[in-house]
Amino acid sequence: MLGRQVRIELTIRSSTPPEATLYGLYQCRGDLQKADCTRCMQSAINQIVLVCPYSNGASLQLEGCFLRYDHANFLGVSDTSLKFKKCSRSVNHDVEFYKRRDDVLDDLESAIGFKVSSSGLVEGFAQCLGDLSASDCSSCLAVAVGELKSLCGSAEAAGVFLGQCYARYWASGYYAELSPDSHHEDDMGKTVAIILGVLAGLAVLIVLLSICRKPSH
To answer: Which residues form the Gnk2-homologous domain (predicted)?
Structure first.
């Protein structure tokens, strides 16, 4: 299940067309109902205009949906670069937890599109953007799972967001703030806000990551 996903290519007819084509993509988390997907995307559109008002390209990751636009054609182009990670406190010497976590991550690595997995008290889900091929999705998730293990180690809950996929896991009933660690600070404006807890009906509107590409001069 790829989630509700749409790709857009728009040609702007103008007497001054330095960049006449605009590419866009939006996608909701695969388990969202249509009404929640619509509400999430409305929020994403409103927020991306506020966060990146004068950008040639921008992307915004909410808890429940993703939105991106750019003058460069990014559709179908593999991107496994790390955009954002969050790791909770560590679980020390809990062999059973590590086993269950690895079972979940191994299962998520085989996802094609969106997948939910659980083992014992550990749960997780993963998703690729719908413009990826099955092989590119598998490759992206393999990198995401590897990053989760290497960057978050023994964390009780963790999430890794790459350019075109993400993977998350948590101990059942886990409810706490995750420590942010935004990666790759450069000349692109970046705003990060962290989920403080899952509140029914509100989580899909929490901003996880936004990236703005400033116009070239």
So the answer is: 1-74, 75-174
What average pLDDT does this structure show over 117-122?
92
Contact predicate 145/105, CB 8 Å: yes
Look up the pTM and report it: 0.73
Q: Shortest CA distance to 5 belongs to which of 68, 56, 50, 48?
A: 68
Say yes or no to pLDDT of 187 above 80: no
| 2 in Cβ contact with 27 (< 8 Å) | yes
Q: What pLDDT shows up at residue 15?
A: 43
Residue 208, pLDDT score: 54
Assess whether 92 and 168 both reside in one domain.
yes
pLDDT at 76 over 50: yes
For residues 52 and 87, membership in a common domain is answered with no
Domain assignment present for 166: yes
In whole angstroms, give the CA distance from residue 37 to residue 34: 5
What is the count of structural domains for the chain?
2
Residue 184 lies in a domain: no
Range of the domain at 109: 82-179
Q: Would 72 be classed as within a structural domain?
A: yes
Residues 35 and 111 in one domain: no
Q: What pLDDT, on a 0 to 100 scale, did the predictor assign at position 196?
A: 24
Distance of CA 106 to CAs 57, 97, 162, Å? Answer: 34, 14, 17
